[in-house]
Amino acid sequence: MDTAIDLLKEQLSRAIVGQEDLIQEMLIALIARGHILLEGPPGIAKTTAAKALAGAIDAEFQRIQFTPDLLPADVTGSEIYQQDQAKFQFSPGPIMHDIVLADEVNRAPAKVQSALLEAMGERQVTVGSQSYALSPIFFVIATQNPIEQEGTYSLPEAQLDRFVMKIKVDYPDAQTELAVMRLVRQQDQYAQAGAATPTCSVEDILRLQKAALEIYMAESVENYIVHLVMSTRRPQEYFAEHGEEISTLIEYGASPRATLALERCARARAILDGRDFVTPDDVKAVAPAVLRHRILPSFEAEARGYTTDRIIHSLITYLPLV
C-alpha cells in the first residue's frame, strides 16, 4: 500500500477513536475528488474528524460555522472598493482554502447553501464579473444534526446530489466511549489544537487521485455500476420477480451523477486496499454512502418502515452481476 495512505490512516486512527468506517469513507471521498456530508447526533466527533483529516495533510484548512444570518459573501468572499486605488479588489472568503469544514450546513438559508454547493460543483466562485478557481484538492466536509430541527433549512435532494457521499455517524459503543474519555483526559497530542504533524502533502493527495483514475476496471464492473443505478430508477423492470418487495419502494431514483460517483469511489476504495483493479465488492461497499441521499423512498416504503439503507441493501442483494 502507498506509504502516504499508511501514514494518513495511522494518524487518523489515533485521532478518531473507534470510527474506522468513517475514516475509510472520508479517504475514499477525498481520493475520488468528491465532497462529503456527515450526519449524526451532536458530540460524536464529526467536527473532530474533519479537523483531524486537515491536520494530517499539509493543507490550508478553514471552518465555516453556518448560521441563519450568514450571507453568500461570507462564504465566497466579496469585492471591496479600494479608495486609494480607485477600484474594486477581491477579498477571498473562507471557501478559498484546501479543506473546508461547513459546520451545521443545514442552519444556513438557501442562498448560502447554494453558494457553497455551486463552488463544490464548479470548483470556482464568481464574484461580480470575475471567476476565481478553487484549490486543486478543494474538499468540503459538511456536517448536519438530524435531531435538532428548529432553525434549520433542509438541503433539497437536488443539492444533496452534489455530495459524493452521505456518511452516517452513530453513537459509539461502551468500549469506544471509554477510550475516547481516556484520550481526552490524557490530553493526547491530537486533542491539543495545532499540535498535529502533517503526514502527507497536497501533492501526495493529487497523485493518489490521479492513480485512482488509472487503475483497471473491467467492463463487467462498469456494467454493474450502470445497472445498479438504473435499477433505482426502474425497479419494476429489474426486480419484477420479487413482486412488490422492491419494485414499489422507490419514488425517485439516482441521477447520472450517482453513476460517476460510484465509479470514482469504487476506484478510490481499491487504491486504499492496495489493489490496481476494481472488483464488484468495491462497488457494493461504497454503494450505501453514495446512494442513500440520492434515492427518495416511496410513501409505501415509509409506511412499511423501509429506510433508504435497507432499500439499497435489497438492491445489492437481488441485482445479479452483469
List the helices and strands and how they pair.
Layout: H1 3-15, H2 20-31, E1 36-39, H3 46-56, E2 57-58, E3 61-65, H4 72-76, E4 77-82, E5 87-92, E6 99-103, H5 110-122, E7 124-127, E8 130-133, E9 139-144, H6 157-160, E10 165-168, H7 174-185, E11 200-201, H8 202-214, H9 219-233, H10 235-238, H11 244-247, E12 250-252, H12 256-272, H13 280-291, E13 296-297, H14 299-303, H15 308-318
Parallel strand pairs: 1-9, 1-10, 2-11, 3-6, 6-9
Antiparallel strand pairs: 4-5, 7-8, 12-13
Helix pairs in contact: 1-3, 2-12, 8-12, 9-12, 12-13, 13-15
Please name the defining characteristics of this protein.
322 residues; alpha/beta; Helicase, Ruva Protein, domain 3; five-stranded parallel sheet; two-stranded parallel ribbon; ATP-binding; P-loop_NTPase; ATP hydrolysis activity; ATPase_AAA-3; ATP binding
